[in-house]
Amino acid sequence: MLQYFRPDNLEAALLALSETDWTLLAGGTDFYPARVGKPITENVLDLTALEELRSIRKSEEGYTIGALTSWTDIIAAELPPAFAGLKKAAKTIGGIQTQNAGTLCGNICNASPAADAVPNLLALEATVQLKSSLATRSLSLEKFILGNRKTARKADELVSGIFIPRPGENAVGNFEKLGTRSYLVISIVMVGVVAELNVRDEILQLKVAVGACSPVAQRLKLLEEECKGQKINDIEIQSRHLEQLEPIDDVRASAAYRISVIPELLGRAIKGIIQP
Ligand SMILES: Cc1cc2nc3c(=O)[nH]c(=O)nc-3n(C[C@H](O)[C@H](O)[C@H](O)COP(=O)(O)OP(=O)(O)OC[C@H]3O[C@@H](n4cnc5c(N)ncnc54)[C@H](O)[C@@H]3O)c2cc1C
Description:
Layout: E1 4-5, H1 10-19, E2 23-25, E3 44-46, E4 56-58, E5 62-66, H2 71-76, H3 84-90, H4 96-101, H5 104-110, H6 117-123, E6 127-131, E7 136-140, H7 141-144, E8 145-147, E9 150-151, E10 158-165, E11 172-178, E12 189-197, E13 203-211, E14 218-219, H8 221-227, H9 255-271
Parallel strand pairs: 1-3, 2-3
Antiparallel strand pairs: 4-5, 5-10, 6-7, 6-10, 8-9, 11-12, 12-13, 13-14
Bound molecules: flavin-adenine dinucleotide.
């Protein structure tokens, strides 16, 4: 018989996960749309009563964002300018209802190539915290998302949160998203960036990732390296910076269109650091 369980503490959730197979449910904003018109055929472990996982904690080392933290919580939180891209993305995730229910961790666990959190979290060098009844482990986001809808989570684990190392003192983030309209739209291409500049607007450090142009969003490490020391407004995106991307044709856009708009979107995201 199918089971539905809504534990009110983490220990009970982990014990349940150690005993049988479950599909995890957080805000449900990916879970339910994927099952419209179909009966539910799996055991559902509903995480929404785990209040202990709904928090943003700051320490000397960085920020821990609990798995039940919603997009609305991210928008409302006091976070340093490096998180500006993540906050901007949060405001574009559906409408207010979706932002109230949907979680940052649900977005990464769903592992869609178009997940708006991912480029921002790659630029923030996030790690994913996984817990089972036996162990706790941490994986970089790059190692956690293995492909389209595929993660490194084991069946007896849940994601308890993500950790973002303390950003540089002057780090500033930004996010640009291209869709078929301005709001309520899934990204055709999106860019997350975190940069540190000196007083002459020269790049000291740049971390930039592109989403929806490969099975998993990717950091552009060659561009990051070549931009060092350049004035932000002088940065030019060359095709060699984009060679690792492999966009596909889908219902939202053709691969050729995606490739043609990436330089413009990258330019806007990077230069938007100083010209919001
Ligand atoms: C109208 C609408 C508009 C949307 N717009 C956007 C958009 O613009 N950009 C965008 O990126 N997304 C968008 N989404 C998708 C969705 O809102 C986000 O991906 C959201 O962050 C998912 O979070 P959730 O808590 O609702 O996840 P859920 O639907 O509860 O879960 C998603 C997946 O993650 C797993 N999961 C959830 N939490 C955990 C956990 N702690 N540990 C392990 N696995 C877990 C679930 O098993 C499931 O496979 C939209 C959705 C809707 C309905």
